[in-house]
Amino acid sequence: MKDKFIDDLEDVIDPEPVIDPSLIWGEENGPGKRRLQASFISDEAVGFFEKLAAETWNDLRRRNLVKTPLLETTITNILMAKIQERIKYENLRDIRQVIPKSSEEAVMGFDWEWWVGSGNRWFRYVVQAKILSRESLKYEALCHRVKSSKKLQIDVLKDFADRKKAIPLYCFYNYLPNDIAESYWHCPPEYQKDISQLGCTLVPLEIVKPIHDKRIAKRFIYLHESPQALPWRCLFHAHLDETGPPEGEIVPPYARNYWDRKYDELPKFLQEAGSDRPVSLPPELYEGCYPERIMIIQTNDKILQNSGNLSSEIGPLP
User: Fold this and answer.
1) Could you tell me which residue, 293 or 10, shows the higher pLDDT?
2) Which of 87, 129, 295, 314 would give a disulfide with 111, using CB separation of 3.0 to 4.6 Å?
3) pLDDT at 160 > cutoff 80
4) Sheet holding 95-98, edge to edge
5) Around Cβ 203, how many Cβ atoms within 10 Å?
6) By three-state DSSP, how is residue 164 classified?
7) Closest Cα partner for 195 from 1, 31, 5?
8) What pLDDT sits at residue 207?
9) What are the tens digits of pLDDT across the range 34-91?
10) Ramachandran sector of residue 179 (left: φ over 0; alpha: ψ -120 to 50; beta: rest)
11) Which of 150, 144, 138, 134 is nearest to 62 (CA)?
12) Cis geometry, peptide bond prior to residue 246 (ω within 30 degrees of 0)
């Protein structure tokens, strides 16, 4: 039997023009009004991630209009190539991207890794990407099994994160009608609502895991009900943690429950790595499970210190 949810939405494409990603850089009171009042990287870097999310939303919208396939791996490769190009030619000073050697990519366990922090405080995020299907409006590959181990991909990701002090996340590539998407906007009040930012969303593994139940459809609406399901730009939005250790510490999103996974320094191989040549990954940090890309995101706590009364500016903790 045809899924009633899909039957109700069949051939529904929003009639409004595709949002121009360049508007993300717009005037202060226009469509691109700055939404981050307490980000801990530069507005330039945050704006770039906003632009990428809007472009992903628009690319998937066009895919729906012309009914052509667009693969998850294609989206990931395009995003990583754009980030690398921006770093190389436009001096995106907050971010570096490192590429593992090809022999290590062949046994890749997840799509990419973020190291976020500065000085003696770094958090490691391991990320698996999935794309929303045009035909079913589900994440068809969510319950993928790894061929070499026959384990569910989510279990491999969790096991790696637990063993190697990382925070496991899913990144979802999305487009769906605005009237549905608007109900799943969980950004703090200081953000101007911009549905195209749902083109790239982050969801913690513990939210994704229950959706693997065979009785639950792998739909956007179920994976984005939680207020922890946020546009990926929110990774750079600081939060004043008044509950977790240490009290009153400013922490990156999703780090509150993983304070014991904090690194006191960026690993030496990443300190020394450049963006122009592939690097070997130390087995003590990876042990047979490798990302295709690694991004080092240098935070700037001075941005926070100069942002005024943090308790009134920083949004709720995810």
Assistant:
1) 293
2) 129
3) yes
4) 95-98, 290-298, 108-118, 121-131, 167-173, 200-204, 230-231
5) 21
6) coil
7) 31
8) 96
9) 444 457 788 888 899 999 999 999 999 998 888 888 899 999 999 999 999 998 887 7
10) alpha
11) 134
12) yes
pLDDT at 15 over 60: no
Q: Which of 10-14, 113-117, 159-163 has the lowest mean pLDDT?
A: 10-14
C-alpha to C-alpha distance for 297 and 5, rounded to whole angstroms: 40
User: Tokens for 208?
Assistant: 């994704």
| pLDDT value of residue 303 | 47
Distance CA 96, CA 266 (A): 13
Note the pLDDT of residue 314: 35
The DSSP call for residue 140 is T
| Kind and range of the H or E run holding 298 | strand 290-298
Buried b (16+ CB within 10 A) or exposed e, 64-90: beeeeebebeebbeebbeebbebbeee
Provide the 3-class DSSP secondary structure of residue 112. strand
DSSP labels for 299-310?
--HHHHHTSS-H
What's the burial of 212, exposed, middle or buried (CB within 10 Å: 0-12/13-18/19+)?
middle
**Alpha helices by DSSP H, 91-214:** 102-105, 153-163, 178-181, 205-208
Q: Give residue-wise pLDDT tens across range 112-125.
A: 999 999 888 899 99
Q: Is the distance from CB of 296 to CB of 269 less than 8 angstroms?
A: no
Please check whether residue 139 is in contact with residue 131, taking contact to mean a CB–CB distance below 8 angstroms.
yes
Residues in the chain: 318
Give yes or no for residue 180 having a pLDDT over 70: yes
Residue at 178: amino acid letter:
N
Q: Which two tokens stand for residue 278?
A: 């592939």
